[in-house]
Amino acid sequence: MKKKILFILSLILIISIIIFVPTYNYALSKYGSRGNEVKKIQEKLKAWGYYSGSADGIYGSQTFEAVKKFQRKNNLQVDGVAGEKTLAALGITSSSKPASGNSSNNTDLNLLSKLVYAEARGEPYKGMVAVAASVLNRVANSKFPNTIAGVIYQSGAYTCVADGQINLSPNEQARKAAQDAINGWDPTSGCIYYFNPNTATSGWIWSRPQVMTIGKHIFCK
């Protein structure tokens, strides 16, 4: 009888734990996941050259390896899991939590500020705004990803992503320059490329139509 009572009490305890322990809905896709979020991940990775499979919404081994490659290239934790930071870098709002307009705006401003600080600190203020504006011009151009994160983290697009300087904390001037660009100031008149002629090693960039020089950067289309 005593054993029966102990068994019943243990059973009640287990049921109570299952019912009352809170569950947490983490914003991530991982190996074995399926659905629209996985399809978006695949489409982004394929457009940026990390993934060569089909965007079928199935998180298989090829998607897993592509995510790891993207994470490694962009100084994220390399675990093959598309968690919140990886999704943000891909420019994807997770379907597991509601999107917030203000949060998205703040994320874009912060990331653009980091790009400006990494690529143009020491440049005249107009040159910092110009770098930010060129990113936004790419976002508006159908040949590039249509988000700020997508443009910045596109494979091979920016030196600061490759060498990790994108992770530096931007100063107030960089943030202000990014905000001015978001507000519509474009000193480049629509340019989508820029380079420093003293350090550029790509012959291709010299072939682009040059529009103007601001500080140490030549801006081109």
Helix content: 40-55%
What's the arrangement of strands in the largest beta sheet?
1-3-2
**What is the H/E order?**
HHHHHHHHHEHEE
Please report the number of helical segments: 10
Condensed summary:
This protein is mostly helical. The protein has helices at 2-20, 36-47, 61-73, 84-90, 101-120, 125-139, 148-152, 159-162, 172-182, 203-206; strands at residues 193-195, 210-214, 217-220.
Written overview of the protein:
By secondary structure, the chain is mainly alpha-helical. Helix content is 50%, strand content 5%. The chain contains ten helices and three strands. The protein has helices at residues 2-20, 36-47, 61-73, 84-90, 101-120, 125-139, 148-152, 159-162, 172-182, 203-206; strands spanning 193-195, 210-214, 217-220. The protein has a three-stranded antiparallel β-sheet, with helices on one face. α5 (101-120) packs across α9 and α6 crosses α9. The relative contact order is 0.11.
